[in-house]
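During the no-cost extension, the postdoctoral fellow (Dr. R.K.) reprocessed legacy sequence entries with the updated structure-token encoder. One reprocessed record is reproduced below for audit purposes.
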Amino acid sequence: MLILTSPKQFGIFVLETRNEILFYMNVKIDTKEIFHVISLNEAILSANMAEVFKELITETYKGDNKSIVLNLVQVHEIQQEIAEVIGQLHEELYSNNRSFVLCGLNQTIKSMFQEKNLADTLNITPTESEAWDIVQMEEIVRELDMDI
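Re-encoded structure tokens follow.
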């Protein structure tokens, strides 16, 4: 049985069994009115982080049904399994009428998304401020669509 320790505790998201910590991820979660900003403080997102990474994003947005801005400015490298999970999470959030925007990507990470044919599908911005703008604009569009 897996237990997910709240990411708000000490900025560390922990995946553990009853007696053993399997993995942890250093994160910062900043909650705004309509979205969460998740900043990953890890230099490398490796394949063995894929499960805990997916749980982190899923648990964060499902808790209060807010959109996600994923800030990768501290991340220098991601492995292809993480890129695939990001693609899946993008589809999942948009199918639930939520936004998912990535920001702060270096050229290595951008290249990984291009290799996986995800660069044109994902919302990617250079800065966190621009990511906020996209989330807010998409929220306005959703509200206008509901009014019609």
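The chain has one domain: 27-147. The first helix runs from residue 50 to 64. The remaining legacy entries will be reprocessed before the final report is submitted.
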